[in-house]
Hints:
CATH class: Alpha Beta
Number of strands: 8
CATH superfamily: Collagenase (Catalytic Domain)
CATH topology: Collagenase (Catalytic Domain)
Shape: globular
Strand content: 15-25%
Order of helices and strands: HEHEEHEEEEHHE
Amino acid sequence: MARGYYQHRDRLQAVLKNTALLLLAVLAVLPLVTVFAAQDTAQQQLASAHIDGCHAPSFPLGPVYRIPLRVHLGESGRDPLEFKDILDEINHIWLSQAGIFFVMQVVLDDEPLEQGMDIWFMPTLQGIPGLNGYFQSAHDIQVRDNPILKPAEHPARHPAARTAAHECGHGLSLPHRQDSDDNLMRSKTSGWQLNAQEIRDARKAAAMMALPDAECSGDAVARVVQH
């Protein structure tokens, strides 16, 4: 009897998390995009959210480079709907400064992409409570659900977004830079700014990773597609 109860509870939790994930696809970009949803409600429970395109048609330094980023939330302890603003801020940090936009696919599984980057959000990393983020490779990036960061004069709004953007910076070839709390590439602070050299280096790396249609020419699009 107890086993049946726990199995039912686990199935219910999985359905609720998938439902929240679908709502995330709509709410995260609703003011900026058109949403295309699958018609069958049962099939929607197996869908993945995509945030495609970019928020700006041009960038003063050249084309907007679009890089695939698969966001893995299956192990996260946060409600998927809480990632609405987090994902928006990651792209704001990179698009506003460097003309780099992450084409995000939000999933609950652990299947990595063949190109671009993969990032996992989870309650703790490698069993170390104080570790905020971890970059091993472009397809092995981990971020703590609720990073603990030192203050900065110009802080990011969401610690998880700032930490994810920092780790993605490593994926774009950037090392740590510890000379100011406002730096995105400083360890364990809330700053999110890049300097001119970092922008040049990140754009050079992004050009090698970007999707073929790297230069944006239209509005962003969020799609809910079968997975």
